[in-house]
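Request: Not sure, any thoughts?
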Amino acid sequence: MANEGLNTVVPSIGPCLGGTIELWVDLMVPEVLDLGPDTVFCDIGELLINLPRGFSAQIWSTGSTAEWMQVPDGGMYSVYADDAQGCKVYDEIALDLVECLPAMPTVFTPNGDGVNDVIRLDKGGRGTSALLLIFDRNGAV
């Protein structure tokens, strides 16, 4: 039975034939579950993968059944889910978490104009201290 629409079948067991049965067949194409491309991220603490809308009954490779999964470390992650038609679908994503340098501002002008008056260092969630040297336009500390 590979034809969509009304199909006629005759069930059989060995040489014994049953009565003719008519069945309506709908061929359903599963929706594509796409977690996105394999990606490299800065390891800044918390990274979440969200299940796209329209999918349910999800089971992540970590065993979680939430609509999102917190990524504990780099690696391959996958999810099985049901699409809106009830078809089982699957996708996986490779995430490479790398240590990135702290974000450093390139301009600091504490002149009271409200633009670049304050400097904040984002250490990327790592470390508890930093050394910051500020030089004037003549190169003096």
The chain has a mean pLDDT of 85. Residues 39-98 form one domain.
